[in-house]
Amino acid sequence: MRQENKLAYNDLRDWINTLHKAGELKRIAVEVDPVLEMAEIADRVAKMGRGTSKAGGPALLFEKVKGYPGARVLMNQFGSERRMKLALETNSLDAIADRIRILLKPDTPTGLLDKLKMLPKLAEVGAFFPKLISPKDASCKQVILRGADIDLNRIPVLKTWPYDGGRFITLPCVITRDPKTGKRNMGMYRMQVYDSRTTGMHWQRQKVAAEHMRERLRATSEGAASAVDLMALTAGGTAVAESLESIPHVTLGRIRNERMEVAVAIGTDPATTFSAIVPAPPDVEEYIISGFLRQKPLELVKAETVDLEVPANAEYILEGYVELGELRTEGPFGDHTGFYTMQDDYPVFHVTCITHRHDPVYAATIVGKPPMEDAWMGKAVERIFLPLMQLTLPEIRDVNLPAEGVFHNLMIVSIRKSYAGHARKVMNGIWAMGQAMFTKCIVVVDEDCDVHDIPEVVLRTTNNIDPERDIQFTLGPVDSLDHASRLPNYGSKMGIDATRKWKAEGFERPWPPMLTMDPGVKSRVDAMWKQLGIE
């Protein structure tokens, strides 16, 4: 892997060249329509080899896009375990987790020599911070479009499912700034293209960008709107109209003349794109996460029309603003749950400038019934950020977010159980932890259970529980994409304690041991296995 030579990918094109050399890229020379056809091809490829070591199919570079002469579209770039490792330049995702552990819990220096030994680690952390470069050196500014030249319809944006409300930008790195702290955030939120200059901005109310917008609204409305009003103004919901009516007309008019600056990068190097989906700690910018993964600082450049810094080597940069208080219907959208997310009202992004490279490559993805490309991205997040969960809940030994659970519907957790009720403590701890609060079902097993061995987990769970006693229900926030919850963004969650039960938990019967063969017998059979001629 490239990490051994510490050569970070400079940009998306460097990454494409690496995919080609590694035999991981399929160039499509046949003309393909970005409306549905590309999505259908990518969906079939994502499901190739399912259940085998070759699952995921190749990355796809469409070189003849119907209706867009000269355009190219990259899809399925992260769509296998091998490519995910290649993207992050590592032989093991757990190796990145180990690096995070060292940063989170460095050995305490006991003397001068130990302190000196820590200096390289501190220098390494410093090397993660982004680097601002001159606009003349930024390839994302090779073409600059303003005024009448702005036209989103010239970009080969995909429509991925038949009943989608339109074409959606599906792999954007959306950049905002916290109005209180100045900290930048980079998140990935789908964007429905409405016309040549505007898109939707799918800022679910629990997302960081939505909180940035609420902070702007709080400052602008001068207390006239309640917290509920502010929540409704920044994301969809049935109470939007009522909330707007509850704000005094003069205040609402003032809000609607206020703008929040936004920039969007499309087609960045793979580590930067991946950084936009990670659950970064609140005080750590995604640009630093990118630098950490790349082992090299990310190069940034000042945007043309907004006060934000953007990835200098991105294929496209969209600059603009969201007008506070302005909402528009967005959706439906075929989502990663395997169902359509229905229409709702979301903020509107107005484009003030588009910059791009010469002959830009448009990067896109499709989400839908798993397994798909995002399943491999989610698995990487699971492995890499396990240490952050363990920092809060050190009893956790491992976690598994099965692709079929679409990240937020099922989490399997193994723990080192130390006291009665320990599994329930872990459930509640997870529900109190950032984006993990949306987890619909949590299954807790003992540390000797491999959470990635689903047959073993099912065996343990179905045998170890008394349903009435060991299943816990609670109410709280749920993912906006959950179509089954009793209310939008609010519903019930379930925890299953599938650990061995203790007497201290009121279990008076003897707990039987699991079946295991004598180690000596296993060794003797191992020695004679080839002679048996069974395989």
Q: How much is the average pLDDT?
A: 88
Q: What would you say the CATH architecture of the largest domain is?
A: Roll
Sheet with most strands: 7 strands, antiparallel
Q: Please give the number of β-strands.
A: 23
Question: How many domain modules?
Answer: 3
Name the CATH class of the largest domain: Mainly Beta
Low-confidence stretches are 223-228, 237-253
Shape: globular
Number of helical elements: 17
Query: What would you give as the CATH superfamily of the largest domain?
Result: Electron Transport, Fmn-binding Protein, Chain A
Computed CA radius of gyration, to the nearest angstrom: 25 Å
Q: Which topology of the largest domain does CATH recognise?
A: Pnp Oxidase, Chain A
Report the end-to-end length measured between terminal Cα atoms.
34 Å
Share in β-strands: 15-25%
Write the layout of secondary structure elements.
Elements: H1 12-21, E1 25-28, H2 37-46, E2 59-62, E3 72-75, H3 81-87, H4 93-104, H5 112-126, E4 131-132, E5 143-145, E6 168-169, E7 172-177, E8 184-187, E9 191-192, E10 198-200, H6 208-221, H7 227-234, H8 240-246, H9 249-255, E11 259-266, H10 270-275, H11 286-294, E12 299-302, E13 309-311, E14 316-330, E15 333-334, E16 340-341, E17 344-356, E18 361-363, H12 373-384, H13 386-392, E19 396-400, E20 410-415, H14 422-431, E21 441-446, H15 454-464, H16 467-470, E22 471-477, E23 490-497, H17 519-532
Parallel strand pairs: 1-2, 3-18, 4-12, 20-21, 21-23
Antiparallel strand pairs: 2-3, 5-17, 6-9, 7-8, 7-11, 10-17, 11-14, 12-13, 14-17, 15-16, 19-20, 22-23
